[in-house]
Amino acid sequence: MQRDCSEGIGGQEVSQGKLCPSPLPLLHWPVSLISKKLVIAAIDFANPAPLMWDFEHAPLKNELLERYEIVSLMPSECARRLKEGSADIGLVPVAAYAQMPSARIVPGCAIASLDHVRSILLVVRHAKSVRGVKRVALDTASITSATFTRIFFSKLWKTAPEFVQHAPDLEAMLRVADAALLIGDPALLALEDREARAARTGERLEYIDLAHEWHMWTGTPWVSAFWAVREAAFGPETVSRAQLVEDFIQSRDHGETHIGELAREWAGRVPLPSGLLRSYLTENIYYFLDDACLEGLNLFYRYAVECGALQAVPELRFL
Asked: What's this model's pTM, rounded to 2 decimal places?
């Protein structure tokens, strides 16, 4: 069950995935007592950037780096590192969480979308659209979006194509399949190049936003990832559970107030204009693991089991 406002976290309270004001002082462990840093496996895409604000920017960056060590990885690699114990905290795909019985979810934070997300695309070449697709190339960085794709084909589109793993290169994917799943920055770049590609090739492809399809079908948000923690990582020389939750929720809240700066930063890292990145981070990505997201998440797990993509519906275990 998700914590409610009666359960104080770090001197503050959580409701609907957001912090509620509280007169109680925040709980901070003295840095001198923390000698073992927890390793964070973060995702090296633009969409988690607001969640990472305090970890990467002053004035709190240096303080947090006394408590945490950060490594940037692809989504599937974050899950693997957390599962094997070489990372303590990970921004893990929600499908991977189903295989982590000892992990706990950090309440309040998510990578989700309330409708169009733009960075989860099924690109279809077949003239009969998705119902004519025989083979789908799945981005190797994807775990959750690949599972959503299997759900769509099995339960909504009622077909059974072959699924193959492939590096996120649209042209190469379409040479071996008649549909390609792209996620994250490669999806944003493919969508931005849509008209230019059509002009270059004379071919019109169908670009399906899977978060929008999910919302239209189920009425619930699309949930892609959340912070998960190894319970065994905590000890007398690490940050406390309450402090960790406070650190991550506070970073999310500060990140949401600096979207413009993040858009300019990421425009220097990926070939996309800062205005597009700003609208993407504010209009397409939703960072709160609230009740509506939990409803969508539970539905995702149930459908994934029903179509054979997952073995069992996992219990949502929170810190």
From this structure: 0.86
